[in-house]
């Protein structure tokens, strides 16, 4: 999806909608938990064996990665129980380090500046396991603590030479790699700050705004590679709510940890890859692909966030997300929502605030949340314009694009 930060302003807007609360039955959550636990991880016996094997397979399943960069004599593993907190917490999403420019950007991050800091990685690190492992290794060398949640690109299997039975197995492999590197994927308290990674997936019914008609819009299967690049066992599908429930069931396993965190922490940051509210995406008429809202978000995710932060929210909480590649910083119903994507190289070149100089974005410093990220074209726009999804006349740049088709 092309980033629209550089487009002229349209007639759009942002409003607030009531929260759709979807509560899966305990039986359904239990069924999904059992299903997830039954998934068999096939592959190497340990993370370190995987690391050694990469040198012989990088040429086949990696792109723009040198084997010697992946092979390290020994990885220093940060204990997951560490309670120390650096002075700052940074956020970043959509690294897409299969692109050489993006991998070079990660490599260019200072090896000294962030040594006492925390980084939250909100998904879409890389398409291949090789690039994922190299990227997370580089980040774990630069930051004291690194947290991660998976994105859709991370679970693509199309360039893995049939190494994984399906995307569930690949997810298990990525989480195993994170454990080996000391990258955290579960709720953790660091000196009074609670950090909660939230697993999620999108569902089409998330989109409830009026459809755009009168133009030929490619189908979801044509526009979204997830339908071909991800592989799911028979019980799970991107065309219904099953994947959204499946991933949310992983959060259910941490309910006791989160309850404890709510009692002990002065500030809490939750983060996900996918979008929890449709107000966090431009209206359809502003988008080159108007059906984008069908493949970006989850009402179940928003319900999970509200179960943690409360219906009214609080100034002491923030939710970080990714996926759409739009820089965003907005307050909705008492919760601050932030997206700070590296995105694709071509998108960074188009948007007003680039990304090379201000990313990763510092969200927390010296015991408090920092000021609003700026400029953020779309969230800035919607802060002064109401959201009017009932208006379906295409924005000029979108109309021009479809006129050429």
TrEMBL record:
Example GO molecular function: hydrolase activity
Pfam families for this protein: Metallophos (PF00149)
Residue stretches making up the Calcineurin-like phosphoesterase domain: 88-210
Protein name: Calcineurin-like phosphoesterase domain, ApaH type
SUPFAM superfamilies the UniProt entry points to: Metallo-dependent phosphatases
Top-rank taxon: Eukaryota
Organismal lineage: Eukaryota, Viridiplantae, Streptophyta, Embryophyta, Tracheophyta
PANTHER family for the chain: [ACYL-CARRIER-PROTEIN] PHOSPHODIESTERASE PPTH, PTHR36492
């Amino acid at each position: 999806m092309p980033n629209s930060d550089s487009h002229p302003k349209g007639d759009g807007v942002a409003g607030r909608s009531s929260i759709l609360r979807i509560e899966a039955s305990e039986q359904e959550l239990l069924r999904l938990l059992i299903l997830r636990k039954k998934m068999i991880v096939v592959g190497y016996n340990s993370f370190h064996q995987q690391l050694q094997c990469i040198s012989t397979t990088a040429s086949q399943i990696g792109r723009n990665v040198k084997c010697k960069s992946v092979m390290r004599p020994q990885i220093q593993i940060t204990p997951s129980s560490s309670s120390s907190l650096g002075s700052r917490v940074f956020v970043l999403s959509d690294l897409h380090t299969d692109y050489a420019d993006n991998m070079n950007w990660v490599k260019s991050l200072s090896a000294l500046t962030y040594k006492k800091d925390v980084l939250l990685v909100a998904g879409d690190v890389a398409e291949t396991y090789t690039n994922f492992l190299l990227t997370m290794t580089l980040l774990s060398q630069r930051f004291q603590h690194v947290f991660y949640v998976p994105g859709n690109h991370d679970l693509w299997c199309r360039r893995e030479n049939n190494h994984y039975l399906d995307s569930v197995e690949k997810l298990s492999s990525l989480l195993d790699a994170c454990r080996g590197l000391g990258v955290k994927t579960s709720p953790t308290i660091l000196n009074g700050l609670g950090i909660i990674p939230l697993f999620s997936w999108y569902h089409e019914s998330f989109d409830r705004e009026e459809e755009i008609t009168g133009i030929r819009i490619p189908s979801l299967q044509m526009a979204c590679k997830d339908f071909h690049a991800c592989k799911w066992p028979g019980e799970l599908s991107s065309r219904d709510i099953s994947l959204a429930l499946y991933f949310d069931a992983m959060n259910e396993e941490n309910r006791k940890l989160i309850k404890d965190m709510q009692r002990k922490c002065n500030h809490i940051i939750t983060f996900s890859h996918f979008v929890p509210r449709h107000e966090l995406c431009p209206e359809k008429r502003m988008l080159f692909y108007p059906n984008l809202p069908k493949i970006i978000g989850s009402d179940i995710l928003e319900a999970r966030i509200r179960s943690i932060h409360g219906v009214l929210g609080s100034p002491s909480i923030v939710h970080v997300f990714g996926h759409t590649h739009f820089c965003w910083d907005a307050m909705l119903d008492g919760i601050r929502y932030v997206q700070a994507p590296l995105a694709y190289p071509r998108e960074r070149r188009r948007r007003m605030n680039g990304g090379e100089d201000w990313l990763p974005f510092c969200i927390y410093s010296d015991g408090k949340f920092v000021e609003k990220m700026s400029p953020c074209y779309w969230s800035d726009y919607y802060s002064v314009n109401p959201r009017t999804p009932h208006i379906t006349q295409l924005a000029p740049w979108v109309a021009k694009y479809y006129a050429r088709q």
